[in-house]
Design brief:
The structure holds 2 protein chains of 2 kinds. By secondary structure, chain A is of the alpha/beta class. Helix content of chain A is about 15%, strand content about 35%. In chain B, α4 runs parallel beside α5. The chains are: A alpha/beta, B alpha/beta. Chains A and B meet through β13 of A and β5, β6 and α8 of B.
């Protein structure tokens, strides 16, 4: 783990308003699902750095990239950086997707696509091709889909039917479950908006699929000191303690570990 | 050149971590050499485990952030067994070349005077360097802030701790009072060896679209650069009113901020929320202070309280 200024090499437009920010290495070895806290070196308009999964990394670590969609002041400042300007990256942080499963079904919504490119590359290097279910509102909103060409078996869905399955990615999953293309006993890795992940978990658990979710929780420090990013949890991993720090024990949790708060 | 002291506790430099913003320091050790900071102040330790408040617990605001962690910690037994040895290791790492290394300051939180006493006894047995008595967390006691809002209760809590403590005792004060000086005088009467000022300001964030408060508990403590002017004013006010050394805290993110607090009368300064933005910041600030003082041809000792010696005294309740 380190905190370092990395020079922005290139801002690659992924369509749908998202960008891959490619930064100069060295990028430490990072497991799929681990994240970095990012901020601009100069003129950072907010206080706290923002968490992002590492999207891609050169095998030798000479560059790495982050998938960023400008939605607020911090993300906008990151995407407004010009090549040559500095981005402060702290990481790698958190726990990755579990490594004990060879062939997980990956499900992504929007910028939740980010952790799956490294995972797909890792699998491909071992001769496996992962299935990826990726949903967006329109074809345009499937930001980053082209980066997965030849790497995964892609099952895309769009709300308007402009590409792939018509409907939400959860409807696509339901359809594949009904057709037996995804079966009981399989493992699901999922990253996307909370309602989507809850819906995916709700589909998987009664059908006997274990489901691992990568949470996009609001964070302050990212390295375990503030206890601000906690989520309510249950299960043996937490030894009876009701809260877990997303930045330390997460961001990946098995769905059955998460307890939903009423707030 | 940066040496300072808080009562009988000598420090290599005036830069400390603020309680609750840097854990025990252990998580931050990979980002910089913590052997170079003045002291590490632990997150508040309570007698029994406290799970803390329901999420969401944090929310960024313009130039600051709200938190309502609720003193989440696993209690004193766990802390002494698992965390304190790590703080000792960090302290030992800096104890060389004639330096003291980072001092271990334990922030203790209680719901009763008996809690404070039991915690003080325990940590003095463990040989820590100082205690910081958290009179003032806004996120517990249903927001009642008992010890921090009543001078007599503050005095009683501090006196009880002092009776059993063989190390310096600092009282951490709340800004959420009409007159912080009155509370400080209570702590001084109780025998405090120093004051830490200030804790967070109570605040709130609301999402009108959802028609509800953003934090799980509704209210939270505001920290960050937004509160620095308030903290600076209170430190100035305290320095004019009490004889105790003051540890300034609130919105510090640079060497300039530290030196502003020193000018207001602080003997040492804590860095808090800014550690979330840059986990290596404290050590950078120590180096920067050295450079800035050298460039200005002055010392920490010369600067301390200098704002009280200016020709035109600030008007209002702060002035003597």
């Amino acid at each position: 783990m380190q905190t370092k200024v990395h020079k922005l090499l290139r801002r690659r437009d992924l369509g749908g308003g998202s960008y891959a920010l490619e930064v100069e290495g060295p990028i430490p070895s990072t497991q799929p699902g681990q994240f970095y806290m990012l901020r601009t070196e100069r003129c950072w308009p907010v206080q706290l750095p923002r968490p992002f999964s590492l999207y891609d990394r050169a095998p030798d670590g000479s560059w790495g990239s982050f998938l960023v969609k400008p939605v607020g002041e911090g993300t906008r400042a990151l995407c407004d950086q010009q090549p040559g300007e500095g981005i402060v990256c702290t990481g790698p942080l958190g726990q990755p997707f579990p490594r004990d499963f060879a062939d997980p079904v990956c499900i992504a919504g929007g910028v939740g696509l980010a952790p799956f490119l490294l995972l797909a590359r890792q699998a491909k290097a071992q001769g496996r091709t992962l299935r990826l279910l990726f949903g967006g509102r329109t074809r345009e909103m499937l930001s980053g889909i082209d980066d997965f060409a030849g790497l995964v078996r892609m099952h895309a869905s769009t709300d308007d039917g402009s590409f792939g399955f018509r409907g939400r990615v959860t409807a696509l999953l339901d359809d594949m479950l009904q057709k037996g293309e995804v079966k009981a006993g399989e493992i699901v890795f999922c990253c996307g908006p909370d309602p989507m992940m809850e819906a995916v978990a709700a589909l998987c658990e009664p059908r006997g699929l274990r489901c691992f979710l990568s949470l996009e929780t609001y964070m302050a420090c990212g390295y375990g000191v503030c206890n601000g990013c906690t989520v309510r949890v249950q299960g043996p991993r937490f030894k009876g303690w009701p809260f877990s720090r997303t930045c330390m024990e997460g961001p990946v949790y098995e769905a059955c570990e998460l307890v939903h708060d009423a707030h | 050149m940066l040496e300072t002291s808080l009562a009988s506790l000598e420090l290599d430099n005036p830069v400390l971590s603020a309680s609750g913003t840097f854990g025990s320091g252990w998580e931050g050790r990979q980002f910089s050499d913590l052997g170079h900071v003045g002291a590490l102040v632990s997150k508040t330790v309570t007698l029994l485990p406290r799970p803390g408040n329901p999420p969401p617990r944090i929310w960024e605001t313009p130039s600051g952030m709200l938190n309502s962690i609720g003193l989440e910690n696993k209690g004193v037994d766990y802390f002494v067994r698992e965390t304190l040895p790590k703080m000792r290791e960090l302290a030992a790492s800096g104890r060389k070349d004639g330096r003291h290394g980072p001092r271990i300051v334990i922030n203790i939180g209680g719901e009763s005077i008996d809690d404070f006493v039991a915690l003080a006894e325990r940590f003095c047995r463990e040989g820590v360097h100082a205690l910081e008595v958290n009179l003032s967390c806004p996120n517990v006691q249903e927001g009642k802030l008992l010890f921090s809002t009543d001078p007599r209760l503050a005095e009683q809590a501090v006196r009880a701790v002092k009776k059993v403590a063989d190390v310096p005792v600092f009282a951490k004060l709340s800004p959420n009072v009409t007159d912080i000086v009155a509370i400080a005088k209570g702590a001084e009467q109780g025998g405090a060896d120093g004051l830490t000022a200030i804790n967070t300001l109570i605040g709130m964030a609301i999402d009108w679209r959802k028609r509800k408060t953003i934090l799980g508990r509704g209210i939270g403590g505001l920290s960050g650069p937004a509160i620095k002017p308030v903290a600076l004013r209170m430190v100035y006010q305290l320095a004019a009113a009490v004889r105790l050394p003051i540890i300034g805290v609130g919105g510090v993110r640079s060497a300039d901020d530290v030196l502003d607090f020193v000018c207001a009368g602080a003997a040492a300064v804590q860095v808090g929320t800014a550690m979330f933005t840059d986990p290596a910041l404290m050590v950078c600030i120590v180096d920067e202070i050295r450079d800035k003082l050298a460039a200005a041809g002055t010392t920490i000792g010369d600067l301390r309280g200098a704002a009280h010696r200016q020709a035109h005294q600030p008007s209002g309740s702060c002035a003597r």
